[in-house]
Write a structure and sequence with these properties.
By secondary structure, the protein is an all-alpha fold. It has five helices and no strands. The relative contact order is 0.18. Pfam families: DUF3180. Keywords: Membrane, Transmembrane, Transmembrane helix.
């Protein structure tokens, strides 16, 4: 089946699932950070004290994704992707890729929330509660960044070794300068 043609006669490209762009994750983090800062600014007095390890779950998810990435990377490098017993099933690889993409977005959201909270806390020197909550916000912010990094690496490990580069896919084949 060929791609449908546009009114100008050119073939319409079918949508493809491409690599997660850091630019998109940064936009998510900034938008969520601004929203979080606004919400915290007007509701900080009603929030409970923040525990130091409030962002611990982000580190746990990152570690799990790194372990999965090592398994996937080994299977892909050994060309052990297929339906045979002991191989990485293609549907499992697709699910792992979906997990990586979702985790990257979750990490960007977490970075935005923790950054928005931290910006508020850094501007409030007059509150003892703000001094108490800063270390927890820093731990959460770093956890979000670690989760994004682990998710992007897991996504990278899901690539086939003979997959074309981003330049070749976009039709911009690298040539002599």
């Amino acid at each position: 089946m060929t791609a449908p043609k546009t009114p100008s006669g050119r073939k319409e490209e079918e949508p493809q699932l491409g690599p997660t762009r850091i630019r998109d994750l940064a936009v998510i983090a900034v938008v969520v950070g601004v929203i979080a800062w606004i919400l915290v600014r007007y509701n900080y007095n009603s929030l409970p004290p923040m525990p130091l390890l409030a962002g611990l779950v982000l580190y746990i998810l990152a570690v799990l994704e790194v372990v999965i990435a090592f398994v996937v990377r080994a299977r892909v490098a050994d060309r052990q992707v297929g339906r045979a017993r002991g191989q990485l099933h293609p549907l499992t690889a697709a699910r792992v890729l979906a997990l990586a993409k979702a985790s990257a977005i979750l990490g960007a959201i977490a970075v935005g929330v923790w950054a928005g909270l931290l910006v508020f806390l850094l501007t409030r020197h007059d509150l003892a509660a703000a001094n108490h909550d800063r270390p927890g916000a820093i731990v959460g912010l770093i956890g979000g960044v670690v989760l994004v990094a682990a998710a992007l690496w897991l996504e990278y490990c899901c690539r086939a070794p003979d997959e074309p580069t981003d330049d070749a896919v976009g039709g911009r084949h690298p040539g002599p300068a």
